[in-house]
Structures are given as C-alpha cells and as structure tokens.
Amino acid sequence: MSQRRRPYVSMQIMSRWGDVVGLNVSMGDFVNEYPHIFEVFKHPVRRNVCCCITSKMLELIEEEKVVVKEREVDNIRMLKKLFMMSKEGTLHLHALRLVRRELGLPEDFRESIFRKYVDDFKLVDMEVVALVKKDENLAFTKVEEWRENEYREKWLSEFEIKYAFPINYPTGFKIESGFKEKMMNWQRMSYVKPYEKEGTRSRSKTGIERFEKRVVGILHEFLSLTVEKMMPVERFVHFRKDLGIEVNMRELLLKHPGIFYISTKGNCQNVFLREAYTKCCLTEQNALYIVRRKMLDLMLLHRRNTKEIKRNKVIEEEKPILETEKVLTSRRDGDWVIPFLERSDD
C-alpha cells in the first residue's frame, strides 16, 4: 500500500453526491460524523479540503477481499444450490449482481467463477447462466437439517416434523382464537420441496396453499445461503421468474412472522431469517460476516475514540501526489481528483 497512490476526492466534488446516495444531511456533516471511516485533510498543493478512507477501514476492505477469495469453493456450492432451485436450471446475471454482496460473491464473479468453472456452469448468452449438471448431494435444504435434529433430539413423530418449519414468534405476538390449530395444519401440510421439480399446479384452495408453502421453502433456503441470512425484499422480485415464485413477495413474508422478520428501518425493507438470529446477532457466524461486523462497529463509533486517529504526514507518502500535481499544473480548470474507487493493482 505504501507504493500505491492513495485514493482521495475533494469535498467540493463529494458535496454533489448527497442526492445520489440519498443523504438527508450535508456531505460535510456526514463525513465528519464518521471519522473512523473518512479522513478529511487539506491537499498539500491545491490547498483544498479533501477526503480519503482511513487506513483502518482500508485494512478491513482488503481483509474482506481476502475472505471473499477464500470462499470460492463455498460460493460454487452455494451457486449450484441456487441453480438447482430454479425452474430451468438457469439464472439471470443481473439478478445475481443485485445480490452479489448478500451472497458473498466477488465483484468479477462472472469471470472468476462462471468462466473459470466451465464444467459446472455454462453461459447461455450475455445475461443467462445455466448449471451444467445437477449435484444430488446438494439437494438437501437447511430446514431439512433442522427437521432431522428435531426428530433425533426431541423424539417428534415423522408426521409432525416431516414438512414443518422452525417457528419463533416475536415478543408480544398476539395469538388469536383458532390460530394454533391453523398453524398446526399448515406445519403438517405436504409441499413440493425447493430442490424437487414442481408438477402440475392445482388451482384449488389446498393447491394454492401448498404452492405458497413451497415458495416459503424456497425463500427460507435462499436466505439460509446468504452471508447474513438476510436480503432486501425488493431483490427477491428479480428471481421470481427463474425460481417460479411469482407471488406477492411482501404479502407472503408478512403471513409468516414466525419464520421471517421484515425490518423497515431506513428506506429499504430487509427480510431476515428469524431462526438464524439470537438477540439481534447471527447465531452461526462466518468469516465474511465477522469482517463486515468489524466495519459496522467502526462506523458505530461515530466520533468516539477519535484521539486514536492521527493522519500520517510523512512527506514520502505525499510524493506521488506532488509529482502528479506537477504534471497536471496546466490542467487547473475545475477540480482534478484521483478517482475515489480507483483500482491500483501494482
């Protein structure tokens, strides 16, 4: 890192990004609120106020990249399971791009995974990828693991547990008359599981209920494959056709508060797999979740412990900037900046 040009951007340029990222405060106030994430300094040559990412945050970003790379085998397994849940064994790339972060995929997953593992995946066209061969060893859902444990540890009958889901109602949930019986019948009701191919769909009331339970199973399995067992609700919509789950997603999720939890904080609705969390913390934590949690903890510090933050003003670190400025002294119109997200792979 010491040999790389440090990415920075002028605050004047950053002030124009407020509306783009949906800030309801000024960019200056936002940056100053998170001194453990952003470092504000005066440019040694231009003398304008600039901003860069702190060294601590950069370390975590690099750590995240390493962890994502190490997840390659797990990511292949996870992707195979997603493809196996689809109707035709295909998924659209644009849908996967939207949930890349939730699935823990690298930015270049199209090249680093799909083009690399040609024995497993095939690019049908520019936007569609197909699974070459189904792996029956992976056709086992997370909820089926739970059922096996319940059957073995609690001695429950197969009739009670074969099609059941773990139910954890929130504190204060009001149980109305007849609700328990209705839920018991739903738990016992059979359905076509996520890795099984759906036959002719019945349009009867029972047929619709079985189909909805299949969708619940697919959503449950999808969430269990994500890094944090959560995902923005609207991103499920992009998988509706491929996965054959063309229903009102939000309405279905709200019908099952014991399985799913929808957070409405901010401008985005996120759905969480309720069983995966204990007291707001992920029960089974993975390496990627842990490094992202470190990033969140850094952000939650706000302006606390700022005495530990000191900008290194060693003149050698500024040489690349000074040399660049000398070359560009003729280009003084407007603000010249090094791209904030510049790739510098030396």
UniProtKB/TrEMBL annotation:
<dbReference type="Pfam" id="PF11955">
    <property type="entry name" value="PORR"/>
</dbReference>
<dbReference type="GO" id="GO:0003723">
    <property type="term" value="F:RNA binding"/>
</dbReference>
<dbReference type="InterPro" id="IPR045040">
    <property type="entry name" value="PORR_fam"/>
</dbReference>
<protein>
    <recommendedName>
        <fullName>PORR domain-containing protein</fullName>
    </recommendedName>
</protein>
<dbReference type="InterPro" id="IPR021099">
    <property type="entry name" value="PORR_domain"/>
</dbReference>
<feature type="domain" description="PORR">
    <location>
        <begin position="3"/>
        <end position="303"/>
    </location>
</feature>
